[in-house]
Amino acid sequence: MIQISALPAFTDNYIWLLQDHRSHRCAVVDPGDAAPVLAWLEQHPQWTLSDILVTHHHHDHVGGVEQLKSVCGAMVYGPANEHIPARDIALNDNDRINVLGWDFDVFAVPGHTLGHIAFYHHGQLFCGDTLFAAGCGRLFEGTPEQMYTSLERLAALPADTLVYCTHEYTQSNLRFAQAVEPTNADIAERLKNVSQLRANAKMTLPSTLALEKLTNPFLRTAETSVKEKADERNGRNNQSGSDVFASLRSWKDTF
Ligand code: ZN
Ligand code: FE
């Protein structure tokens, strides 16, 4: 049994903490800052940090890796195609690793960055800055087509998959989702729930793929109303799902 919880970092990052209660070993995903992890380990002295999983090279995801590795001797897993400090195991698409006794499949999900990877274990997805709750990452390095393909791949996982992304962006993402689909009742209801959670300083994650498919505009490019809204926004007839995605993504960049 592995327990998953979040260590908040910076203003809106979550460092996911995975605890194996049999071995008292734990792992973290995307430790952008070592301090919250070291503080947790200090408060839980019976636990050993044995593994660090990294999705991509941005500083808010790797900033704590070197320090954590030097203090704890943890094994560092990260994408082969990016510079990841102190990386031990370089991962490529469709690799499989075993961490805390769990097998994780590695998916290449280019778009936010070119080497971005996601980790999947039976109904749990750690997707960094690729798929967000009600949104998706900005296209810093990849093309809209790459990100669209990456999101489609993640969306094809089982509907009850829990989505552990890195940022607490859900509320602002839902405001955009509502601009795209003003009459979508699922979006309205989710925005209400999420606003209540945020008003109480509570986390809105993890999400599920089922909920994302109902409320995340970037997974809803096949909906006629979403396509029509994207057409209206950039004054062209978007032909493919990837075109609709590109229009939505560039609209969101300035929303
Ligand atoms: Zn990033
Ligand atoms: Fe990030």
Automatic annotation (TrEMBL):
Q: What does this protein do?
A: Thiolesterase that catalyzes the hydrolysis of S-D-lactoyl-glutathione to form glutathione and D-lactic acid.
User: By what name is this protein known?
Assistant: Hydroxyacylglutathione hydrolase
Q: Which organism is it from?
A: Pseudomonas karstica
Q: Which UniProt keywords apply?
A: Hydrolase, Metal-binding, Zinc
The EC number of this protein is 3.1.2.6
Pfam families, alphabetized: HAGH_C, Lactamase_B
In which residues is Zn(2+) 2 bound? D60, H61, D129, H167
Q: Which residues bind Zn(2+) 1?
A: H56, H58, H112, D129
